[in-house]
Amino acid sequence: MVKKLYSITDWDYHQGKVTFEDLVDEDLNVIVTVCTVAIAKEEYETSSSIPGERATFTKEVLMSSNGPMFFILGEDNIWDIYLDAAHFTVQDIQKALDELSKLTGITYQFTSEPPLSWYAKSEDLREDRINECK
């Protein structure tokens, strides 16, 4: 099984210096969140809303030095990938997804340029959500 993941970040604009990114599937569901360890530590230190079990596991992982990337499956079934780097590129994300694939048995394929139809679909969903809030 191959699961395609997309990003809305303008990678050319950021010139490979992204520190946080949500990766979504074709239905715009967040599947993976990628962030640097530094960002995760900052969030952990300032957030009081992390569920207990996840907070404990997150603290253990962030305080360890077991390697350049860590994987956590959250209670929301979204994978968090922490990269121990100042920032990351499209290639870094694919490398991390290749490692996640080994853990899950699902092949993840990342593209930084989603199809134009995806943008139209995201606009339709956005309008639907706005209408739901009225």
Task: Walk me through this protein's architecture.
With 134 residues, the chain is α/β, with parallel strands linked by helices. It has helices at 11-14, 37-46, 52-63, 90-104, 116-133; strands spanning 2-6, 20-24, 30-36, 69-73, 79-83, 107-111. It has five helices and six strands. Strands 2-3-5-4 form a four-stranded mixed sheet, with helices on both faces. Strand 4 and strand 5 (79-83) form a beta hairpin. Helix 2 (37-46) packs across helix 3.
List keywords for this structure.
single chain, 134 residues, alpha/beta, four-stranded mixed sheet, 5 helices
Which residues sit in consecutive blocks of at least 5 with pLDDT less than 50? none
Main sheet attributes: strand count, strand direction, barrel closure? 4 strands, mixed
Task: Classify the beta-strand content into a percent band.
Answer: 15-25%
Molecular shape: globular
Task: Report the C-alpha radius of gyration, rounded.
Answer: 16 Å
How many DSSP H or I helices?
5
Total number of beta strands: 6
Number of domains: 1
Question: Could you report the average pLDDT, rounded to the nearest whole number?
Answer: 79
Supply the helix-strand structural class.
Answer: alpha/beta
Task: Enumerate the strands of the largest sheet in spatial order, edge to edge or round the barrel.
Answer: 2-3-5-4
**Helicity, in percent?**
40-55%
